[in-house]
Amino acid sequence: QSENSDKSSAESDSEPEVEQVSVYHKLLDTLKTSPESESEEEEDESESEEAGESETEMGSEGSQETREAEGGEEDKDDVPEQEEGAADRAEQTLGQEQADGADTSCDPSDGVIEEFTDVKHESEFSLETNFMEEESGACSADKRDGNSPQALSEDPFKQHMDKELEEKEIEKMSTLPKTSSQSKWPRLGQLTFSSTLEKHKTFKADKEVDVKQLYLHKPLESTWPKVNKQFLSSVNKPSDPCFTLLQRELFCIMNTYRDLFYPERNALTNGEEIRHAYCLHALNHVLKANAQVLSNNAKRRDQKPGTDNDDYRDQGLTRPKVLMIVPFRECALRIVHIFISLLEVNDKRKIDVSNKKRFKGEFGSDPEEKPPNLKRPEDYEAVFAGNIDDHFRIGVAILQKSMRLYAPFYSSDIIIASPLGMRTIIGTEGEKKRDFDFLSSIEILIIDQADIYLMQNWEHVLHLMKHVNLLPLDSHGVDFSRVRMLNLNNWSKYYRQTLLFSALQDPQINSVFNKHCFNYMGQVAVRNVPLSGSISHVVVQLPHVFRRLEAENLPSVIDTRFQFFINKVLPEYRDAIMSHTLIYVPSYFDYVRLRNYFKKEELNFTHICEYTKKAAVCRARRFFLKGEKQFLLFTERFHFYKRYTIKGIRNLIFYELPTYSHFYSEICNMMKATGNGVDATWTCTVLYSKYDAQKLAAVVGIDRTAQMLQSKKNVHLFVTGEN
């Protein structure tokens, strides 16, 4: 479901930087609450297009600039399904018309589709008009710990949100570099702690965790052990029955409200236990925040008329507190199921979930839709399980014993969305229909499976990061007397916790963590180095030649690599004896450049990319296998989304090291599918520079990487299959 937020009728066309301060301070001066209609359903224009083969999964996020990089020349077989990069056409992307679960009650004649939001339960889930249930077992943290002020003051949520930063501390964080320190934990391994305010302050992992000492809001204390039971084994200590070792150390960091980057998420092994851990943290935060508001509602109701009290500042400028970015609808489905499980104390005390049936229909999947007899690697099956539509957003509101799915964004506590789903609502400069005010008071940002966004469109992630925690352009009916000073001071980004999970280390992901995370509590990054590398999983006997190219700086690497390839590498393969040469190209930009060069030079080649039509893929594979085409240009994103075995490879060229290290061994091992090949004639050539250190280490291991970066000579490795 492509869930949209309710938008104010007074919406600005300008960029936030231009108007937000003046408009905002004007609102502050008036201190008026201007109630807005929260029940307007926004219309989302969507163009009905035929759902293609699974190529559309890949094509949905292709970068426009790369497709036009070489003068706009396109191959007839490589036409993208949609031109996603153009901002004013972003709403037409990838079959959103049916997948978004658009309301079929709309008038089809004008082509406008109303996007469904639940407006029935507005008052029931309103934070402003509800109060804490006196008899509720899910009493607020305030009430529960009312007799123990010390216990309340030690609650990490209270400590983090109640801390009042000073101007000089904000200035310090804005200008001074962070100081770092290292620590080694039993399960997470090597950690880097960095902070501007807290110098050289690290903490050790708790050896044992008592769930009662985690300040979990009820009912999480009782439900978490049952929900998490599936991941626990008999080796868990009786004193720590609730967490796996990985979960315990991750939650230990999360619960201190530090930013966290964990680059070892694996869909096959630890993906689900990580998902459960961050869902527990997010839900715990929302329940505490809402309980505080409801408790203060009751106190304000009971106070004497005319009493002016400034003690009830307990919320942000807009209601959404948690933003969860995930790649596919299946991920959102699992998250909501975890939330429901954590809120249901037992079978007799089921929580009321609004629009549950609709949600299952639009985010679930039909097992029969999966083509039979498709054999893919286990990691592929784990990543692409269930509904893999990548254009969605949905608001979730939680109040005591109830959950509301499809809540309008300004009435939501949690927003679950894909990067593309966020991009199409945030929009770009010049668009009349755009909105990002609902991101103004995000307190926890969770970006899961960040590596997949490298295969979709990383620009969407960067665009999102630029629009989180900006001052809203409109008041959206907020009661300024209840807004925390940190939000009024525009300091929200210094309190936001960012949790970033990825399957790999990558400079672009590192950059988001280093440049877009400003948490005053500091950052924690897991920085383990690979010891062996994926080359050890190559099972065919093959000489690997790593050819180093020298680039003056990082921006010049792209051109240097191209010139190095056409001048030094390609001439060695032009001879007909070097037939059956597959060139693996991670970047679509480089693929287009190489394809155009090969055409210009009239080389005998074929090509496959993520936009190639199915018939053209079949032709290309057949031509390459039979030797009718000497070269095959092959993109990484095609391999990521398809994982076809390419038969007939005798010579391999990695134009650049693969993003996923295991793709290296996978591509090399495709050679064993060549039935009549002679092992002695097979070759593998890899281009790399000093800027590829992380990718190189993931392929050959840290020790070899150090040697290769010190030496300026080409490196020859021979892998026997047991190396």
UniProtKB/TrEMBL annotation:
Subcellular location: Nucleus, Nucleolus
Bias (Acidic residues) ranges: 37-58, 71-85
Main localization (coarse): nucleus
Top-rank taxon: Eukaryota
GO CC, one annotated term: small-subunit processome
UTP25 C-terminal domain span: 534-718
Record-stated family: Belongs to the UTP25 family.
Region (Disordered) location: 1-159, 295-314
Subunit structure comment from the entry: Interacts with CAPN3; the interaction is required for CAPN3 translocation to the nucleolus.
Ranges annotated as biased composition (Basic and acidic residues): 1-10, 299-314
GO process terms (BP): maturation of SSU-rRNA from tricistronic rRNA transcript (SSU-rRNA, 5.8S rRNA, LSU-rRNA)
Domain UTP25 NTP hydrolase-like: 257-524
Protein name (database record): U3 small nucleolar RNA-associated protein 25 homolog
Alphabetized GO MF terms: rRNA binding; U3 snoRNA binding
Task performed by this protein: Component of the ribosomal small subunit processome for the biogenesis of ribosomes, functions in pre-ribosomal RNA (pre-rRNA) processing. Essential for embryonic development in part through the regulation of p53 pathway. Controls the expansion growth of digestive organs and liver. Also involved in the sympathetic neuronal development. Mediates, with CAPN3, the proteasome-independent degradation of p53/TP53.
InterPro entries named in the record: P-loop_NTPase, UTP25, UTP25_C, UTP25_NTPase-like
Entry keyword set: Developmental protein, Nucleus, Phosphoprotein
Record flagged with keyword Mitochondrion: no
